[in-house]
Amino acid sequence: MNDGFFSGITHQNLEQDFKLLKAALDASVTGIIITDNGLPDNPIIYCNKAFEDMTGYQRSEIIGRNCRFLQKDDREQAARYQLGEAVANGNDAVVEIRNYKKDGTLFWNELYLSPIYNDNGQLTYFVGVQHDITLRKRAEEELKANQAEMEQRVEDRTRSLREKEEYLSSIFETIRESLMVLSPELKVLTVNHDFIKTFKVSKEETEGKQLYELGNGQWDIPELRRLLEQVLPTNNPVVDFEVSHDFPHIGKKLMLLNAHRIELEGEYKDRILIAIEDITDKREIEQRKDDFLSIASHELKTPLTTVKGYVQVMDKLVAKTGDEKLHNAIEKTSVYIDRLNNLITELLDVSRIQSGKFKIYKEPFSFDNMVQNAVNSLHQASPSHHINVIGETGIEIVGDEAHLEQVMINLLSNAIKYSPDEKEVDVQLSVVSNFVKVSVSDKGLGISREEQKRIFDRFYRVGNIQQKFPGMGIGLYICSEIIKNHGGNLWVESEPGKGSSFSFTLPLTKSDLEEDAK
Ligand code: ADP
């Protein structure tokens, strides 16, 4: 036996026992070393096989060296100081230390250091038991790195969400319309600055309250309840719902309410955004405008009727004198008076439609004749254009002949007015199923898709035409009201630069059809 630590043992049985012990240590998968504290620099005097495997050194390269040779140049490790202290004080220590194999590869060593004392209580040896924990360390480091990355991502995401929230909330607060957000149970979650200003309430009076319990129950309206509770959940928005109410603090107001359900998953799911617009002043101004229109057109109409009467008297008197020149002048005056009269009648029609006083008087008449009369009057007024009537209905319908002729005259005069360089206008007549249908087509300016949606609105005119084409933008509005009042439909098909086609259909009653079948 010449294995350092074991070599001094001579007793036969003991030697046997130690051989067994040494074999057992060599069989261990745990690296084990013993250092001799009594020798200078505490050298390794024993290492087992597992330690050789762990470090890549052979016993002959290990025995006699201080353990530090395993750290190579990697000296600045806290674990080293811990070990130093344990050795100096003769204590236990457990450290995780970076060591290097013979080929330079790093391995993490989990080292249990225990002092051994002799019978005199003298520190003689240290036993070091070690495990290669590189894999565990690596896994721990990876975990740490992953955790750090995750934390970074969460932080980034939180920051970006916070920024988005601040961004949205600044829009929400800046918007000059009252906004409120409700929970799916119709509890107020947030209101914006404009809401507080408009309704003269505090956030505390509003947020957290049930919508119907706000103020003096101004939003507790059966129809609004139905829209919010039954229509909104089907993903249909509440559009322009008018609420007229004597609101606390602000008095009688007319509010326009729009509500949308927020279709998001998660925290914001099914929240409801309500926008409230105070239209009291706007409505009042509109009303005043309508009143003015009504008064002005009435006031203009009366003297004009008197003027027309005098002109007729003058015409009769002049006829007796035989003065041609004077007669022509009076004829022209009469034409302009009629034109002025028509304009005023149109304005009166608009104000009657607005006030619900527009009346339709229905009587049977020949549809084709009515169309022909309109065509004839336009032939006279605008001889430059040629109007082709194509087809016929052969039908006598029940309707307001004068107003339907007004529709035809409006469509024809528009077709002529808005096609100054094209001289042909077509009028197509037909019977489609149980409807009569008329189309007035020109090859003039045409109308863009966007404008097509608006030309039937009152006082709407396509931009930039005012200089070139006079008009008030009410003809089509009146036409569509007249056709609506007959249960019919008026529409336009058009392409800019190619021309327009305005068509309307009127439903035929059973009696219209029976009458014509005779
Ligand atoms: P007005 O002709 O007095 O402006 P209308 O209500 O009859 O009023 O027509 C509304 C607008 O529709 C017109 O200003 C014009 O821009 C457009 N429009 C109507 N008819 C035609 C047409 N046949 N071709 C092109 N634009 C038309």
From TrEMBL:
- Record CDD domains: HisKA, PAS
| Residue ranges annotated for the PAS domain, each copy included | 17-90
Membrane-related topology note: Multi-pass membrane protein
Q: Name one GO molecular function term.
A: phosphorelay sensor kinase activity
Swiss-Prot/TrEMBL GO biological process terms: osmosensory signaling via phosphorelay pathway
Q: Where is the PAC domain?
A: 93-145
* EC number(s) reported in the record: 2.7.13.3
Q: Would you tell me the protein name for this molecule? A: histidine kinase
Q: Quick one: where is this thing mainly located? A: membrane
The entry's keywords: ATP-binding, Kinase, Membrane, Nucleotide-binding, Phosphoprotein, Transferase, Transmembrane, Transmembrane helix, Two-component regulatory system
Among InterPro entries, the record links this protein to: BphY/WalK/GraS-like, HATPase_C_sf, HATPase_dom, His_kinase_dom, HisK_dim/P_dom, HisK_dim/P_sf, PAC, PAS
Q: Which residues does the UniProt record annotate as the domain Histidine kinase?
A: 295-510
Q: What sort of enzyme, by top EC class, is this?
A: transferase
Q: Which reaction does it catalyse?
A: ATP + protein L-histidine = ADP + protein N-phospho-L-histidine
Record carries keyword S-adenosyl-L-methionine:
no
Species of origin:
Mucilaginibacter achroorhodeus
Q: Does the UniProt entry include the keyword Ion transport?
A: no
Give the matching PROSITE patterns: HIS_KIN, PAC, PAS
- Record's GO cellular component terms: membrane
